[in-house]
Write a structure and sequence with these properties.
The complex is a heterodimer of chains A (112) and B (114). Chain A is mostly beta strands. Helix content of chain A is 0%, strand content 54%. Chain A is globular, with a radius of gyration of 13 Å. The N and C termini of chain A lie far apart (37 Å). Chain B is mostly beta strands and 114 residues long. The chains are: A mainly beta (112), B mainly beta (114). At the A-B interface, β4, β9 and β10 of A face β5 and β10 of B.
């Protein structure tokens, strides 16, 4: 029973365009959401996070949007660059000391 | 130094072997984690150590035995594993326990149990 769902296993986007990665969750107790990025043969690296008291958080080319009523969040990357090709994991947690629950990931391909 | 190192990179072991995975960080982090990731699945938390004490054990079978000898080192001792335990084992660390503390991951140890 997946509490964090990334329904698109892969996504291809032209370089320079916007990449939108989606994530849905089922647990209404989740109050903190994170995105991690993973290159092959490396561990995941933290990208950006958002608390449930916000609906948007921006860091350079990366913006995360949270829609609590729909239990949905998305990561926007604009403009997309070749180095953005990686697997992106959505993750969520409930409470300060709780564990992080990861989604299965979406593989993003940036096309030249 | 913002790196988490894991050794070995790859490990093949039989079901009767005893082996250990090692994880090291020198960032002064006081929380360390073991995750297991099977192919096409998300990383799943196994254990959390906070200030060298076991804080979370996600009902992991006893054939996996974690150890935190000091604040920089985390080991995972393996004994009598099953083929279904074959996976990528990821170590992570953070300043403190909890999701508000950014977790830094190592590259993982790819384990194959024959």
């Amino acid at each position: 029973d997946q509490q964090v769902k990334q329904n698109s296993p892969s996504l291809s986007v032209q370089e320079g365009r916007i990449s939108i990665l989606n994530c849905d969750y089922t647990n209404s107790m989740f109050d903190y959401f994170l995105w991690y990025k993973k290159y092959p043969a490396e561990g995941p690296t933290f990208l950006i996070s958002i608390s449930s008291i916000k609906d948007k958080n921006e860091d350079g080319r990366f913006t995360v949007f949270l829609n609590k009523s729909a239990k949905h969040l998305s990561l926007h990357i604009v403009p997309s660059q070749p180095g953005d090709s990686a697997v992106y994991f959505c993750a969520a947690s409930a409470g300060r000391d709780d564990k992080i629950i990861f989604g299965k990931g979406t593989r993003l391909h940036i096309l030249p | 130094d913002t790196e988490v190192t894991q050794t070995p990179k790859h490990l093949v072991m039989g079901m009767t072997n005893k082996k250990s995975l090692k994880c090291e960080q020198h960032m002064g982090h006081r929380a360390m984690y073991w995750y297991k990731q099977k192919a096409k699945k998300p990383p799943e938390l196994m254990f959390v150590y906070s200030y060298e004490k076991l804080s979370i054990n996600e009902s992991v079978p006893s054939r996996f035995s974690p150890e935190c000898p000091n604040s920089s080192l985390l080991n995972l001792h393996l004994h009598a594993l099953q083929p279904e335990d074959s996976a990528l084992y990821l170590c992570a660390s953070s300043k403190g326990q909890g999701p508000y503390n950014e977790q830094f991951f190592g590259p993982g140890t790819r384990l194959t149990v024959l």
